[in-house]
């Protein structure tokens, strides 16, 4: 029996366990299982691995997408360039890190990226958050030549701005990579001023539970197009499965 698992902390919000269990049933995969393995400290990863020698692959979620890297033997090019890992293949004791968030995000927005930017908006994106998911989003935006800025409550460098600097911006794309608004904290959202939301803009929230966050409801009220991160999760999960079985 091949074992796959998700590591992170906490894991109560995770969709991966249900997704892969249903996939195994649907596709008649009888030689695999998928477990949730909450990890309170990334330093506990070697102990976890030694306890499950049948592990063939891991998904990695908040808050370990960056801090897991020193524990790995290799990184593929995308993981190296993003500096973040959400998928690990384990084979013959060798752990290789990948970033399938990149695949999921880019493919889920492929139609939107093909559209022209309305004249009322700037060809600029805002990435809310600076963690591992933000690194994957930034990678895709750079690849497509889209200028962007990270937005943080506590900006630390020239590439980051605070939420109090957003009032006069007209971005054509806003991507929330923070967990704010995730169930059960459904009444919270990143402190984006309402003046930033505009007709024709896309607001994409990586949060998928609930299906429509407070951020998405606020943006939709002002005429923005909205999408949550569920399709991205499906796409990145399938990309991980391909990596584990390649």
Distinctive features:
246 residues; Rossmann fold; six-stranded mixed beta sheet; 8 helices; 24% strand
Q: What is the compact description of this entry?
A:
The protein is of the alpha/beta class. 29% of the residues lie in helices and 24% in strands.
The CATH class designation of the largest domain is: Alpha Beta
Uncertain stretches:
none
- Predict the CATH topology of the largest domain: Rossmann fold
Shape: elongated
The whole-number mean of residue pLDDT values reads 96
Question: Which structural class do the helices and strands define?
Answer: alpha/beta
How many discrete domains?
A: 2
- Strand order, main sheet: write it out: 2-1-3-5-6-4
Named at the architecture level, the CATH assignment of the largest domain is: 3-Layer(aba) Sandwich
The termini sit apart by 17 Å
Would you list the SSEs in sequence order as H and E? EHEHEEHEEHHEHEEEEHEH
**DSSP strand content:** 15-25%
Tally of alpha and pi helices: 8
Radius of gyration: 18 Å
Percent helix among the residues? Answer: 25-40%
**Largest sheet data:** 6 strands, mixed
Beta strands, count: 12
Write up this protein.
This protein has 246 residues and is an alpha/beta fold. It has two domains: 2-99, Rossmann fold (3-Layer(aba) Sandwich); 104-228, 3-Layer(aba) Sandwich (Rossmann fold), CATH 3.40.50.720. It has helices at residues 16-26, 45-51, 77-82, 101-108, 110-114, 132-143, 214-221, 230-244, and strands at 2-8, 32-38, 55-60, 74-75, 87-91, 94-98, 122-128, 148-151, 160-161, 171-176, 202-205, 225-228. The strands form two sheets. A six-stranded mixed beta sheet has the order 2-1-3-5-6-4. Strand 5 (87-91) and strand 6 (94-98) form a beta hairpin. The radius of gyration is 18 Å and the shape is elongated. The mean pLDDT is 96.
